[in-house]
Amino acid sequence: MDLIYLDYNCFQRRFDDPGQVRIQLEALACEEIFMRAEIEEIQLVWSFMHEDETLQCPFPNRLNVAFILSTLCKMRIGPEDEICEAALELQKRSKIASKDALHLACALFIGADYFLSCDDRLVRQAKRLDLNMTISNPVDYIRMEDL
Q1: What is the tens place of the pLDDT at every residue in 18-48?
Q2: pLDDT digit string, tens, across residues 122-142
Q3: What is the pTM of this model?
Q4: N or C: which end of the chain has fewer CB within 10 A?
Q5: DSSP codes, 54-117
């Protein structure tokens, strides 16, 4: 069973501009991933970073949906010194933003098979780090899994 760490934007993609085909595809891919987690075909992770970003969300509907989706995440990660140290190391090796580095460090800490994000820049930067997990966009993950 795939262990997947989703970047926070995957929890929020359904709320983005549906006028863009790319966003529609990513939103559908994220929904498919949540559905697969619900029927236990895959396992999702919820970290202290997801919690923090959700609590900072100024939109009650988005906040509520994120917390509902968090119930599909069977693995939980609290803050650990090792995660913070790994995030700092990732930032030294690249120009990854601190929140993104913490998300990646959480995924590494838990031993995720996949780190999925709708952020092209983050996906490119993370792929260059040659981490011990597959970095991908949710649409590409669904395409890979459906082959």
Answers
A1: 999 999 999 999 999 999 999 999 999 999 9
A2: 999 999 999 999 999 999 999
A3: 0.96
A4: C
A5: HHT-S-HHHHHHHHHHHTTEEEEE---HHHHHHHHHHHHHS---HHHHHHHHHHHHHT-SEEE-
> To 5 degrees, how large is the angle CA 45–CA 100–CA 49?
45
Cβ-proximal residues to 1 (8 Å cutoff; 6+ apart), any chain: 40, 41, 42, 43
Per-residue CA distances from 100 to 6, 12, 32, 68, 114 (Å):
11, 15, 23, 22, 15
Domains of the chain plus CATH, in order, are 2-145 (3.40.50.1010)
Closest CA to 116 of 30, 47, 43, 1: 30
